[in-house]
């Protein structure tokens, strides 16, 4: 498999004429994104409180209070930013652009001095960073924020969030790795692998691809968090789903494999793609 086998569509050049997909795009742009923005800011009395944006305000020192929500609450903010970015890519919207810029500035202000960025652990459990990779979604949240930074840069040309997530990725590279003084683990929910691979594609910084490769190679080693990850990945294409859709787990490996042309995972990936 080489890079010519996979081509990603440039959304700046994409024009959708299909009425069904066009209607879905319109609903996302005009209904879903504004509704989600109000929900993230707790402006919808009929929705369950989110507190997601408020968590960043507190972390940035712009408000007082306590963290509220789940351990993966930050990912809602990142996913909204990614959706907003691709919407702006298709249809300019000054109000949406302004709201996203202000949110990005808030996220940048919340980032720690060592470039760590996760409001749950910053506000609620600062002594527990990286202590429960299987369940606490730290790398998952980081991955979604990295993807949001990439999307906003590709969609608008603005680097502010991209610079934030590059510093976050650099922080991760100091924490995780094969060295004795680094943590030897990976997130219970795959996401960071794909995000780092995409970050490499945008920045051409080899260290991001190296870290993505490290996380992928760690899966299947002890401690293993999913049955599928305990299988011999290189020899078998007998894949069983466990915990989440298997396609969610394999996406980071597939994208990473496209980057490593001579990877030993390639035969297994071909087997999976052709038999699933």
Instruction: Determine the fraction of residues in helical runs and give it as a percent range.
Output: 55-70%
CATH class identity: Mainly Alpha
Which shape, going by the Cα principal axes?
Answer: globular
H/E element string? HHHHHHHHHHH
Total count of domains: 1
Number of DSSP strand runs: 0
The biggest beta sheet reads:
none
Low-confidence stretches: 225-247, 267-276
Mean pLDDT: 84
- The chain-level structural class is mainly alpha
CATH topology: Glycosyltransferase
Tell me what portion of residues adopts beta-strand conformation: under 5%
Quaternary state of this entry equals: single chain
Head-to-tail CA distance between termini? 18 Å
Q: Helix tally? A: 11
CATH architecture: Alpha/alpha barrel
Round the Cα radius of gyration to an integer and report it: 19 Å
Descriptive keywords:
276 residues, mainly alpha, globular, Glycosyltransferase
Account of the 3D structure:
The chain has 276 residues and is mainly α. It has a single domain, classed as Glycosyltransferase, CATH 1.50.10. 55% of the residues lie in helices and 0% in strands. The chain is built from 11 helices and no strands. Helix 3 (74-90) packs parallel to helix 6.
